[in-house]
Amino acid sequence: MGPHEQLALKDDVMRMLVQKYGKLRPEIKDKFFGLIEAVVWQQLSWKAASAVVARLRSIGTTPESIVAHSSILTGVGLSRRKVEYIISIAKAVEQGTLDLEALTWKSDDEVLATLTTMRGIGEWTAQMYLIFCLRREDVLPAGDLGVRKAIGRLYFNGSVPDRKQVLQLGEKWKPVRTYATIYLWKSGTNDSTIPVLTV
């Protein structure tokens, strides 16, 4: 049984979302540039972030190109703080102090612990990396506002739940909470730039 079929059995809401949107999956990202994208996404809408990512992509998608063009990164629409974070991450990958390939074989908790030691990478950003770069199927970003708003609308009569309530509800979506997450995102936005694809 695939993840979509599993999710549809979890509760009536998830079954409705799967029926409405069909089989969705996360758009898989490059391990390095996907991490950079996740930093860009912080506190931005998918639409705004996708515009910045497109401009950043035109500069280069490797650690070497990011470091080489560090002086012009603010011109793509990034804040100075995010530029600092991105350059720091690129240098760490370039120098080997952050080994992204090694993360492929680590548990979700180990990946979170490793990535969150980096400046500019908190739990949410690391969770985006798990979802979009490492294809992990059981990730629920409980602090994500889009997820919380969708859950509030679909499960709590419009009352936005806190992180603890999201995690409690999400227990029944294991082991495919990533798929619950992308359906919740999809239900709350008409933004075509959301990084979710139809299977």
UniProtKB/TrEMBL annotation:
TM region positions: none
Q: Does the keyword DNA repair apply?
A: yes
Provide the HhH-GPD domain boundaries: 40-189
- Keyword Chaperone (UniProt): no
Q: Name one GO cellular component term.
A: protein-DNA complex
Q: Which organism is it from?
A: Sulfodiicoccus acidiphilus
Keywords from UniProt, A to Z, are:
DNA damage, DNA repair
What is the protein name stated in its UniProt record? Answer: HhH-GPD domain-containing protein
